[in-house]
Description:
alpha+beta, CpXC domain-containing protein, 185 residues, 9 helices, 11% strand
Amino acid sequence: xxxxxxxxxxxxxxxxxxxxxxxxxxxxxxxxxxxxxxxxxxxxxxxxxxxxxxxxxxxxxxxxxxxxxxxxxxxxxxxxxxxxxxxxxxxxxxxxxxxxxxxxxxxxxxxxxxxxxxxxxxxxxxxxxxxxxxxxxxxxxxxxxxxxxxxxxxxxxxxxxxxxxxxxxxxxxxxxxxxxxxxxx
Length: 185
């Protein structure tokens, strides 16, 4: 998840930081510990501290360029997809509307799935809006991530076809990502 967040940060020029400081024992959970501690129950928004085993609600700190920081509820991948599926009208809302009216859903979807388009695709729905500025140089921003993560993840985050990512990676003669070669990510 950390590498995906770095890619999202590079593409969007926004910073996403999951914050899982246990209020009971003060242990600061890693991103992996936060994700592992979530239940699969879409109605339980807590994660479990690996130290004291107590449950608490983690936060997602969102910082757009300019220095402001916002603390939001942080949903796990299953929870955010369930909320997107059950929240009436989200599919026809512009990304700016979702960001304004449902900020925790919007930012959790971006943090876990790279974009609203990718998150909606995972629940079998086609989202017609594209958030990425069409004039933006996504190529230069994704180059450091080529071969370090799956092409599909890069495509989801950049809101482009996986074929474009694959073509760029091959042009640069970068080997495709293989999970067994990147066990530390």
